[in-house]
Design goal:
The complex is a heterodimer of chains A (about 180) and B (about 200). Chain A is an alpha+beta fold and about 180 residues long. Chain A has 2 helices and 10 strands. Chain A has 2 domains: about 45 residues; about 100 residues, Rieske [2Fe-2S] iron-sulphur domain (Rieske Iron-sulfur Protein, 3-layer Sandwich). Chain B is of the alpha/beta class. Classes of the chains: A alpha+beta (about 180), B alpha/beta (about 200).
Chain lengths: ~180, ~200
């Protein structure tokens, strides 16, 4: 019987994991349970302070004022018709829908998920986002399905004779 | 860290088992001796040899540990496995070239000689060396051992392709600088030279 031949020697140099899990206690970067608990506690305190700060900031900040802007004439929009406009600023796209002869609703056109533009689907009476199939009720703006976490911000309208005016934004619209 | 070093002289071992009993006295592993006293060839001889952990400079047991449970302290002592990490896989038992680590099934954790770290780290002798009546286990200064013994301390062992340098020294006949052991020799040919 012949003796077995030795296998080839392993490659030179230590792999990366050996650096992270060193044999030598002095090089150890192990996090003990107590350190981890301390980290969790301090992080929680930090997040609590952050929340309080955000709350305080919200209380301090005065309510924003919105301009009153004429959007359209009633006669220009048929029932189930749509008017796109910018409100309150130049880059804030918005969509107005005439749901019946007397009712106009308007919302920000940015989906609350990832800001794709929503469009009105008259046959299903809802605002739909094509990106991830997030649907919103056209009468309230609440989320019907899909990933959007919040309802669409509602744009408050006022009818002044034959003119529709945008007068404000309700960010907390809830169906 | 003191200048005291550990020297093992197998030729002086009388097999009295004092070291085994002294080791088992320790509170950290009471009842379990971490030192092994082996008969070299029980059929032919009463010669025995004590094996403490040799505390390799690059410990193979720790290198093969998948749970990162075996650590070497800054003074070169390789510790027993860390209880929260050891998974009792016995990789170290298989890998150690000296056959030191053991995994007692009752403990489900690798335990081995840590050179009585609680004692040696503060300059005291390990338990086994305090009781050894014949000087087979000596924890002393290198200058003392050189002046008192004919044998010379060696801490370089060659196992096939692996060269192992250790913190613990083995006393060998003068003129020897390394101890070379090829495991293959012992696998394929018995000690009597008769092919198995």
């Amino acid at each position: 019987m012949t003796p077995p031949t030795l296998p080839p020697p392993p490659p030179e140099g230590d792999p990366l994991w050996r650096d992270e899990f060193s044999v030598y206690a002095a090089e150890e970067r192990y996090v003990s349970r107590r350190q981890f608990a301390k980290f969790l506690t301090l992080t929680s305190v930090g997040m609590f302070v952050g929340q309080v700060w955000i709350l305080a900031k919200a209380w301090m900040t005065p309510n924003p004022t919105y301009p009153v802007v004429a959007i359209a004439n009633v006669a220009d929009i048929p029932v189930q018709g749509v008017k796109l406009f910018r409100y309150p600023a130049e880059h804030d796209t918005a969509i107005m829908v005439r749901t019946d002869a007397e009712t106009f609703v308007a919302y920000s056109q940015k989906c609350t998920h990832l800001s794709c533009a929503v469009f009105y689907a008259p046959e299903r009476k809802r605002l739909e986002c094509p990106c991830h199939e997030g649907y919103f009720a056209v009468d309230t703006g609440r989320v019907l399905q899909g990933p959007p976490p919040r309802p669409l911000p509602r744009i408050l309208l006022r009818r002044d004779g034959e003119t529709i005016l945008a007068v404000g934004v309700d960010n907390h619209a809830e169906g | 860290m003191s200048d005291l070093e550990f020297f093992v002289d197998p030729s002086r071992c009388i097999g009295c088992m004092s070291c085994v009993n002294a080791c088992a006295e320790c509170d950290t592993h009471r009842g379990h001796a971490m030192i092994h006293v082996d008969f070299l060839d029980r059929e032919e001889s009463t010669a025995t040899v004590p094996f403490v952990c040799m505390h390799c400079e690059n410990p193979t047991c720790a290198q093969v540990c998948p749970a990162d449970a075996i650590k070497q302290t800054e003074d070169g002592v390789v510790q027993s496995s860390l209880k929260p990490r050891c998974v009792a896989c016995s990789n170290c038992v298989v890998a150690c070239p000296f056959g030191i680590p053991k995994v007692p099934s009752r403990l489900e954790q690798m335990m081995k000689c840590d050179m009585c770290y609680d004692r040696t780290s503060v300059g005291k002798k390990p338990m086994c060396a305090t009781v050894c009546p014949s000087g087979a286990l000596a924890f002393t200064l290198r200058s003392t051992i050189k002046s008192e013994r004919r044998e010379v301390p060696v801490n370089e062992f060659i196992f096939g392709r692996q060269t192992v340098r250790t913190k613990v020294h083995m006393m060998v006949p003068a003129g020897t600088s390394t101890i070379s052991l090829d495991v293959l020799d012992h696998l394929w040919v018995s000690h009597k030279g008769v092919p198995q």
